[in-house]
Amino acid sequence: MRETRQKKERKEEVRTGTGRRTVEKKNVRGAAVKRTAGEKGLRIGPARKSGGEEAGRRKIIAGEETGRRKNIAGEETGRKAVRTGMRKGMEKPRVKNDSQAVKREEKAAKRAPMPEVNEVKKLKAEEAVNETKIEGRNAVIEAFRSGRTVDRLFLLEGSQEGQILTVKREAAKRGTPVKFVTRQRLDQISDTGNHQGVIAYLAAYAYAEVEDLFRKAKEKDEDPFFILLDNIEDPHNLGAIIRTANVVGAHGVIIPRDRAVGLTATVAKASAGALNFTPVAKVTNLARTIEELKERGMWFVCADMDGTPMTSLNMTGSLGLVIGAEGSGVSRLVREKCDMIASIPQKGEINSLNASVAAGVLCYEIFRQRNL
Q1: With bands split at pLDDT 50, 70 and 90, how would you rate the model's confidence at 301?
Q2: Among 114, 151, 117, 156, which Cα is nearest to 132's?
Q3: In 3D, which of 291, 189, 207 has the Cα closest to residue 253?
Q4: Out of 95-99, 156-160, 230-234, 356-360, least confident range
Q5: What is the SS3 assignment for 215-257?
Q6: Lowest mean pLDDT, pick from 20-29, 98-107, 188-197
């Protein structure tokens, strides 16, 4: 019994000690945990505080940068508005009631450039000095039937309407050169915008016949002296040559029907009134006309820098002087029909002259030989 009681007491002491140790261990562990949590709190608190301060500073910097950018953008917008206002202030105000002019401007802006721009400019320049131009089918038909001389006729290509065919027939009867062009080209030339596919240019003066030139020479009892022009397209050159022809006593000028300028208002102005006294004849084929005039006893000399010096040639008697276009000169076929080729003596570095100037020099040499 005594041994049993002793064993129980030892066991109780063991349990009591073990429990005490367990409690002590738990207490120690709890204190350690508390200390660790406290230390973490001490570390986390300052870190969070410094992180907040850094984020705040970043937000402030970002706000300042955004403000600067907005200020710069606002200043640039203001400068653009000022420049735009200045440009608008410098522009001429558009008249509100002139709707037709506005439509013409918009229509002109939409037009694409054409390859015949130079020719269009030339036509517009002629119109500036009151070139006679008519537009519309009925107007052109009546001009033909009334006996007016039509220098050039522009028709809409591909058109086979009844009145267009009538215009073609009237032009064929009178030998009027016809050029078929696009509608856009006609719109460029047109003033009214209602051309109906037909635009005609009338001659400022009536053309003479070749026989009229012989008649004038006979009236003066002189040997015929004619000036023949091969593809002269500049109206100022033609006008100047007609003026020279009158001064040197030539009895008339002969021009081809195609690829040459006609008797426009520009030509009349450049001739300084000589067109009223010097007849101008228009022929279909210049080379054939030379052959016909040769049969009537005329001799022909053409201008070319590779020819014989003009002072070495005999240019008296019945004579025709042939002047070619600038650049291309006298065409090969016409040159072959001529009896003589005359050159103008030169000394400078430039080896060519304006067509009207060359004609004037040769005309005065012919005048010298015939009259002095």
Answers
A1: very high
A2: 151
A3: 207
A4: 95-99
A5: HHHHHCCCCCEEEEEECCCCHHHHHHHHHHHHHCCCCEEEEEC
A6: 20-29
Q: What topology does CATH give the domain 110-202?
A: 60s Ribosomal Protein L30; Chain: A; (3.30.1330)
> What does each C-alpha distance from 122 to 112, 243, 264, 317, 336 come to in angstroms?
18, 21, 12, 38, 32
For the chain, the average pLDDT equals: 77
* Reported pTM: 0.58
Q: Mind spelling out the 3-state secondary structure of 16-52?
A: HHHHHHHHHHHHHHHHHHHHHHHHHHHHHHHHHHHHH
For residues 341 and 309, what is the distance between their CA atoms, to the nearest angstrom?
9
Which range, 76-85, 137-146, 214-223, has the best average confidence (pLDDT)? 214-223
Structure tokens that stand for 106 in this block: 């918009």
Q: How large is the greatest C-alpha to C-alpha distance in the chain, in angstroms? A: 190
CATH match for 210-371 among 3.40.50.300, 3.20.20.150, 3.40.1280.10, 2.40.50.320: 3.40.1280.10
Query: What are the start and end residues of each CATH 3.40.1280.10 domain in the chain?
Result: 210-371
